[in-house]
Amino acid sequence: MNREEYENVLNTHRVPVSQLRSEFDPSKLPFTTTAEMEKLPNEMIGQERAEQAMDFGLTVEQTGYNLFVVGPAGTGRMTYALDSVEKKAKTRAVPEDWCYVYNFENPDMPLVISFPAGQGQKFQREIESLLVEIESEIRAYFSSEMFEKNKRAILDSFREKVDELWAQTDGFASEQNYKIERTQMGINTIPLRFGRPMSMQEYEQLSQVHKDLLKEKERLIEEKIQDTVHQIRKMDEELRKQVNEFMKKTTYEAVNELFLPLKEVYRDHKKVLSYLDAYFHDVVEHFFFFISDENEEDNVMSALIGSKEQQLHRYTVNLFVNNKKLAGAPVIYETSPTYQNLFGKVEYRGQLGSWVTDFTYIKPGVLHAANGGYLILQAAELLQHPNSWTRLKRALQNGKIQIENPYEESGAFPASAIKPEPIPLNVKVVIIGSYYIYDLLSGVDEDFHKLFKVKVEFNTVMKKDDENSLKMARFVKNYCEQQGLLPFHQRAIAKMIDYSSRLVEDQSKLTTRFHDITKLLVESSYWAKKSDARFVDDHHVLKALSEQVQRSNYVSQHYRDLIRNETIMVDTSGFRIGQINGLAVMGTRDSVFGIPTKITAQTFAGKAGIMNIEREAALSGQIHNKGLMILTGYLSGEFAKNKPLPLSASITFEQTYSPIDGDSASSTELYVLFSSLAEVPIHQGIAVTGSVNQWGEIQAIGGVNEKIEGFYEICKEKGLTGDQGVIIPKQNVKNLMLHSEVVDAVCHGRFHIWAVSHITEGIEILTGIRAGNIRGESCDFPEDTIFQKVDTRFKKIYESALAASNPS
After folding, report:
1. Residues designated catalytic
2. What region, left, alpha or beta, does residue 145 occupy, with left being phi > 0 and alpha being psi -120 to 50 degrees?
3. Which of 394, 529, 567, 570 has the fewest CB neighbours in a 10 Å radius?
């Protein structure tokens, strides 16, 4: 085609300057600076679907309707979840208090008692006061004159009976002419002679008959003594029982009246009444706890059964959950959801080389604190503790919280284990996580959808309209006031809105990832303050954006330096056969940039098809491989209608040494194949991006702004000629949010951007030759067109192949 026709082609596909970026009109904002705006509560922007799902999930009361909030970080999902839950919690009743008490029938299974909010602490103090009164009253009774008198009467009666028994024994011994002597060393029997103890000399002078008679009498006396001792022991046992019963009866009389007021207060609380009855009977049974003196206790016994304070622990109350200060349902956000943090634990104390515990050592977890309300967790943190996830599911399924010792089964150390009574669970769990975690749990955990039936999905984009733009301005105002930033001028807000569209690469959308917005707010205010401005203006926002790029563009600048000094070979002028500039996007953690990459192709006779050098070198990804297969399908469809496609070609990304994936260069690869087959040179000042299907239609790609700007930077450094530019898919025009410098260059004709919808449109721009893809009546392509030249090349290769196979 001649120059005029070529210019017409260029102009037909040239993207108008007005479509290169969308700029928000600051005059649409009803203020000059955000300081003039009325302060309104924080609101969620552009997440209507998430708001509806959140309201539904928090309102429905049936079991299993827990929520999983899914979406990328920075969309405000955490803030919104907390705000929504706190608002809903204020409308709900304060849940019950929970207390653990001693189980007098089975100490290893402490009992739990619930009370209306605030009453748990009252009950705890009442029991504390009761214990003090019990100890005081028992001590008073046991030190009273009447108690001593009655106790003395019992002991005196015992002594009289004992004295009478010994008197009878002494009388029996006297009849046998013996005397009984009781000492600390034991009981001795002494024979008498003329009413006095017989001496050894007198005994020796007795005849053997008399000696045998004395021995017989001594044996009878010893039997009598043994019988007396036995009776005294039985009487002593009876005395102990009698004294014990007397002490219990005294204790009963001392404390019985103390329990009556509490029983009256809790007459409708069966579990408390049952506990008070057990408490009362245990006090009566263990009255000695209250009268023993700590200073007189045996150290060994104290170590075995515990000190007096430890013994009296059983009569205290472990106020486990106290909701007295709540004004609604509890809202707990747990950042470290370990097993013990979630479900509580049982602490231990050392005793005689082992670990022992009791109900006062039971400590609550956040699940107890959130019971009756809401618990918010981060999915990534929760799944780092698999035991936590498993036990959380079990608790939600069973509707109760069971405190267990996770080390009990392992037997890591000797411990005295207890199993507290489970607490009924009524909690709404809100888990916040990514799409990946949600899909993972959905696929591998069959219980997941039974327990988390509500999905609250946060979008990353919202519609760009006047309403959302004003909402973003309100967000800026609220954030600036919270963080102490300068107010923003309407021109600065407009730039923020433009930047928001740039982040999502869509002129009609705004981002909902406000983390990126807040970062720019802080940095813009910094530069405004540094210049002593009273408010943030548009040039401060542009300065902040420029500085962000400057801080993180080392890698991109390094690549450009390599291209500029021709270490990496990229031409931006002239024409080459089988060579073209493709565009790729590279990135680091904080920077994404586009760079041109030379793609080359060689075509030759054979039937090997298209050889992807990257694939042969194991540097090609699956999507990239698919793109090349699509090229074969397109070429076969166009040029192999009546005969096989005699194609052998090699294609590669030159000077790339890292893996390549994606299909955004598939149209570029097709162009370079056309160039090589038709032996037509391609304009090296035009870079190309876009994928292609089997019908030659150009498809949209990502990173279009970075790709255009990356090639523009290279052209600028090597020298703008006015003929350079980028070919993009037509569908990507709406994604253009180019930097002002690029837009200005296009406006003044120093750089160009063309949008195409078919491969034929692109090849004409690149070569200046008509594509000619419509066959004539003879089924041949028009003369002097790209398709005709390619078809001619295929025919020659095919004829050569036939001649080689039939040499005769």
Report:
1. 664, 707
2. alpha
3. 567
Q: What is the CATH number of domain 31-42+460-552?
A: 1.10.8.60
Residue-wise pLDDT for 619-662, tens only, equals 777 887 887 888 888 888 888 777 777 778 888 888 887 777 77
Q: What is the DSSP letter of 767?
A: H
Span 334-342, mean pLDDT?
A: 92
Place of tokens 């990804």: 621
What is the spatial distance between Cα 522 and Cα 518, in angstroms, rounded to a whole number? 6
Q: Are the C-beta atoms of residues 546 and 499 closer than 8 Å to each other?
A: no
Cα separations (Å) of 353 from 350, 356, 415, 416, 725?
Answer: 7, 10, 10, 12, 82
Which residues pair with residue 687 across a beta bridge? 581, 726
> DSSP of 328-360, one letter per residue?
SS-EEEES---HHHHH-EE--EEETTEEE--GG
Q: What is the 3-state secondary structure (H, E, C) of 229-295?
A: HHHHHHHHHHHHHHHHHHHHHHHHHHHHHHHHHHHHHCCCCHHHHHHHHHHHHHHHHCCHHHHCCHH
- What's the pLDDT band for 301 if we cut at 50, 70, 90? very low
Q: In the chain, pLDDT over 90 holds for what percent of residues?
A: 51
CATH, range 557-805: 3.30.230.10
pLDDT digits (tens, 9 = 90+) for 417-455: 789 999 999 999 999 999 999 999 999 999 999 999 999
Asked if pLDDT for residue 413 goes beyond 70, the answer is: no
DSSP annotation of 485: P
Q: How far apart are CA 701 and CA 691, in angstroms?
A: 7
Beta bridge partners of 651: 601, 612
Highest mean pLDDT among 210-219, 502-511, 580-589, 742-751: 742-751
- pLDDT of 228 over the 70 cut: yes
Check whether domain 47-95+326-458 has CATH 3.40.50.880, yes or no? no
Domain boundaries, the chain: 31-42+460-552, 47-95+326-458, 138-288, 557-805
Give the span between the Cα atoms of 24 and 32, in whole angstroms.
15
